[in-house]
Amino acid sequence: MKWFVFVLFMTNEPGTPNAYLFTTPNFNSQQECAMAVVNPQMTSVFVTKLMQEFGAPPPPIRTISCITEETIKKIDNMSVHSEGTST
């Protein structure tokens, strides 16, 4: 099972991305992923990618998690089902 780094931003503005999924690198275990998130060399890789995607500085981060492919599929399914719903 593959594990991925998932970043949730602190934003509530419509049209502004509220999350980012790093598809590379990916990891073979949750422990390997968690170790990468706190490794200073890897942290700089993650921050650089966020700055490329969102500009400098990147949006404020709420949480960083390690999630599986299965969790990604569940998030995608929830997103698809909620697109037609308004509150």
Describe this structure in words.
With 87 residues, the protein is α+β, with helices and mostly antiparallel strands. It has one domain (3-82). It is 44% helix and 28% strand. Strands 2-1-3 form a three-stranded antiparallel beta sheet. The radius of gyration is 14 Å and the shape is flat. The chain starts with a strand and ends in a 5-residue tail after the last helix. The model has no long low-confidence stretch (mean pLDDT 88).
Secondary structure: elements and pairs:
Blueprint: E1 3-9, E2 19-27, H1 30-38, H2 40-54, E3 61-68, H3 69-82
Antiparallel strand pairs: 1-2, 1-3
What features would you highlight for this structure?
single chain; 87 residues; alpha+beta; 3 helices
Give a quick rundown of the structure.
The protein has helices at residues 30-38, 40-54, 69-82; strands at 3-9, 19-27, 61-68. By secondary structure, it is α+β, with helices and mostly antiparallel strands.
Radius of gyration: 14 Å
User: Could you state the oligomeric state of the chains shown?
Assistant: single chain
Report the major sheet. 3 strands, antiparallel
Compressed to H and E, one letter per element, the order equals EEHHEH
State which percent range the strand residues make up: 25-35%
Strand arrangement in the largest pleated sheet: 2-1-3
